[in-house]
Design a protein that fits this description.
Chain lengths: 172, 184
Amino acid sequence: MEPAQHPTLTLLTERFGDNILSADIRYGILTISVTQPAIVDILRFLFDHAQLQYRYLTTLCGIHHPEVNQIAVVYQLHSLENNSRVRLKVWLPEDKPETPTVTDLFAGANWMERETYDFFGVTFTGHPDLRRILNVEDMTIFPLRKEYPLEDQTREDKRDEMFGRGMVGSGQ
Amino acid sequence: MSEMDVKVGLAEKPPGVEGAGFFATSLEKVVGLARKNSIWPLPFATSCCGIEFMATMGAHYDLARFGSERLSFSPRQADLLMVMGTIAKKMGPILRQVYEQMAEPRWVMSVGACACSGGIFDTYSVLQGIDRIIPVDVYVPGCPPRPEQILDGIMKIQHLVETESLRRRDSPEYKALLNKYGIE
């Protein structure tokens, strides 16, 4: 199905046409990028709409896109009434990722937003208790941002040249 | 003697002087003998190595044969801290607190690749070996180690317990070791 034929997108475009940046079907799920200020209104519209009834927040997470210096926050919704899913994305600048909380609409978003803050540093304004949830409290980095290395940096027994990285004197 | 007859061995007596009605040896050897054969382990099991430990405690491998049938789930009565599994950095302070609550003399056994070195989890969230926060007496490698290896580790611990000097825990070297880990 073309995304344009999707009834959810049709209804959304009617109401929020200016706020929709792009729409696509990815892995069988309608995926819509929307402008950041409209996200809460769009989620509320999808929640309250008499036919759509997207009332289950399956997941909320972050994705770092260093090539465009942006962090995407992804909301995946499920309409249990229609067994239909939709994925919404907002794009935030890497240096100051900030977006309003959706905990007023979905109480379950509380811990998901804390997780997204913990790993990507996204500030959810209005969140009742925005602090780290999984990592140690005194961590200073947001570890899933790609500028931070995955490996523990305190090990001295692992030398890069033994793992095919940063070859020294190999003549390459 | 049928095959059903099982020989029950007693602990070997330490070297000493023996005569009619008396046996003399050093106090250190007697204490070592007693401690060696009644080690109370505290299992700190966080993942699959803990499953291997459960097999070690079970009837087939039977850790009770080594005098360790009584697990202590309170650190205050435990002699041996057995750390089995991945220790996340967030778990680190808890493990350290458990160690600090144990009374002297205390021993630590690190079971499995993760507890010994972080194992395959070379990542920002995992402690790269418990010896970064507490001193370790015996390392048991493996991912996970078989129960035989854990028993071998227990026997190594038993050897340390048996031969340890009664003065070791008061020595400046031991205090320096603890101070290295920031433990008073």
